Amino acid sequence: QVRVAESGGGLVQAGGSLRLSCAASGRAFNSYTMAWFRQAPGKEREFVTAFRSNGGSTLSTDSVKGRFTISGDNAKSTVYLQMNSLKPEDTAVYYCAATTISYSNNYYFTQTWAYDYWGQGTQVTVSS
Q1: What gap in Å lies between CA 111 and CA 35, rounded to an integer?
Q2: Residue 80 pLDDT more than 90?
Q3: Average pLDDT of 87-109?
Q4: Percent of the chain with pLDDT over 90
Q5: Tens of pLDDT along 14-25?
Q6: Which residue pairs from 75-79 have beta carbons closer than 8 angstroms and sit at least 24 positions apart in sequence?
Q7: In this structure, how many other beta carbons lie within 10 angstroms of the beta carbon of residue 11?
Q8: How, if at all, do strands 10-13 and 33-39 pair?
Q9: 123 burial class (0-12, 13-18, 19+ CB within 10 angstroms)?
Q10: Measured distance CA(17)–CA(108) in Å, rounded
Q11: Are 101 and 27 in contact (CB under 8 A)?
Q12: Does residue 28 have a pLDDT over 90?
């Protein structure tokens, strides 16, 4: 059974940094595409960034480019989300998700329905 579990959220001041981790288990790590989504109060869950373990390619939404970096460690079956220059609008619950389906169109990896496995979420709060 595939499982994903996040850790590393917290409270930080604007301009600060946080690193989130997501550990996956159940299948070979290189079979996953893993992603981070976030959901702010009263808003829909939105795509942040994704990492394809087989090859290491990444995909990010425009609002985090240049500030957030996703990376993977095959040996630990873990992906990391390094978040720098955090802004109050980054405040949300951050969810890790995984899929073993290799979609041909990168757009699909930005959609919540594309992922079969989800973590419980971790709160990130950025104070102004």
Answers
A1: 10
A2: yes
A3: 95
A4: 84
A5: 999 999 999 999
A6: 76/23, 77/23, 77/24, 77/25, 77/29, 78/21, 78/22, 78/23, 78/24, 79/21, 79/22, 79/24, 79/34, 79/36, 79/51, 79/53
A7: 12
A8: unpaired
A9: exposed
A10: 29
A11: no
A12: no
End-to-end CA distance of the chain, in Å? 41
Q: Please enumerate in sequence order all residues whose Cβ is within 8 A of that of 30, keeping only pairs 6 or more positions apart, or say none.
A: 53, 54, 74
* DSSP assigned state of 32: -
* pLDDT the model gives residue 128: 94
pLDDT digits (tens, 9 = 90+) for 37-56: 999 999 999 999 999 988 88
Name the token pair of 58: 């990444």
Which of 56, 49, 97, 96 shows the shortest CA–CA distance to 73? 56
> The tokens of 74 are what?
């095959």
